[in-house]
Amino acid sequence: MIANANATILHVNDTPASLYLGTYSLRQAGYHVLEAMTGGEALKVALEGRPDVVVLDVKLPDISGYEVCRLLKADPRTRETAVIHTSATFITAEKKVIGLRAGADVYLTQPFDPEELIATVNSVLRLRRVEREALANAARLEEADRKKDEFLAMLGHELRNPLASIALAVQMLGQKDSHGLSEADSRRRDIIERQVSHLRHLVDDLLDVSRITRGKYALRRGRLDLNTVLHHSLAAARPVMEERLLVLKEALPAEPCWVDGDRTRLEQVFTNLLDNAAKYSPEGSVITVGAHVDADHRVHVSVQDTGIGLPPGEQERIFELFAQLDTGLARSRGGLGIGLTLVRHLVEEHGGQVSVFSEGQGQGSTFTVTLPLLADAVRPEASVERVEAQKGEWRILLVDDNPDAREGLSEMLQMWGHTVVVAADGHEALTLATPGSYDVIILDIGLPGLSGYQVAEELRQRVASDAHLIALTGYGAPEDRVRSEEAGFDLHLVKPVELVEIGRVLAQLGPVKRGAHPRQRVRARSA
Questions:
Q1: If we measure between CA atoms, which residue out of 289, 278, 286, 506 comes closest to residue 388?
Q2: Is the peptide bond before 496 cis (omega within 30 degrees of 0)?
Q3: Contact residues for 270 (Cβ-Cβ < 8 A; gap 6+)
Q4: CA pair distance 333, 329, nearest whole angstrom
Q5: Beta carbons within 10 angstroms of residue 218's beta carbon
Q6: pLDDT digit string (tens) for 463-490?
Q7: How many Cβ atoms sit within 10 Å of the Cβ of residue 295?
Q8: Which of 186, 238, 281, 418 is most buried when burial is the number of CB atoms within 10 A of its CB?
């Protein structure tokens, strides 16, 4: 017998002899034992004594042991108490099912050997101890996961802020108004721009994979031509391919391939596949992007390279998180080993599949994405979006605690002809933002003292709809966007933002309607 002086057992039986023998055996085993002879008394003692286990006869003079068990399990105060049903009558399978469904853990038939009773109690206590440890571990893991999420959100914000400043400065060097760059300086500027773009994608992938694996992710789906997505991905990949002396070819259908998808995330899928092909391909390799539609109304997009290939064992695990080929070429090209994990999750979220085939090392690889086409899709009217900065139209208040970001964006906005006033924190912004002073307020969220959310709420209360309110921030999770809208922002832009995107946003802002409630204005989609 295993003594457990810390455990309390409630023994419930209306037969004095059975009650005495069971209690005596349990006490001999070292347990603290409470007693009851009716169902009502058992419920009262259970609430007062909080036993670890209830040894409960099913036949009681007032209410049945089944009902006592059900009531114990329904009460949050006694829900975790283990219950062992006992019965002196013939036990049928049906009765066992009734007891187990009521919440009992075990069923014993009387008369039972004292050692059988003690062994059963010990077994139930062990299971309860394991359950409590598992719950405690789960709570610790949940807390660790919460802290990890907070850390990743802060990491994204802290990384995006300097990236935004660098990206903005580099983009300004490439504006038409910038003169005097030598050919060598132009090449250096292009290098910086490519590397900043690479860093931005690494940060996005890191944060995205955390959200996707936790299920905190939602696609913004709509009808779109997959060919357009592929052309954008190819355009983004070409500079990297040229830098690495790779040949990029395409074989896309002449007709549109209409799918129901998230344009940004599908571009991320194919950009990651192209980046993966480039990473594992030596100089002079050929990378081909092709697409075709099958008889089942699906589109198959392949990214084929003539690089180092995949051994059979690697093909099974290449989509796993943090998986990377252990080769000098791959390591020299960097990466976090999460790009293909993102590809798989995003493709499956679109109702598709992704697969890889390679004949072996040195034989190249082919990744194929299969997506369902929209049935009888009507082609929307073709439109060409022209983005031009509006000249001299807006009075803008720019609020950012990063002096480089503040100075760079302010200079660019003034080059476009806007009138710009800057603030370094929320308190200064609230001092400057008097009613009617500004048409647009561009506001960082991660500000010292007052957060951007608090500033936005205060601005909405004080100046009502006197300005378009735009969040320009390093926080880009879905919950951040929801919180922005609740605080009163009209737009949520995630750093680093391309200058052309800022120009597009300013160009699309409508005239401010003085006195209108902010929720009555048409909101532009978050970028």
A1: 506
A2: yes
A3: 229, 230, 233, 289, 301, 303, 369
A4: 7
A5: 10
A6: 655 688 999 888 777 778 888 988 989 8
A7: 5
A8: 281
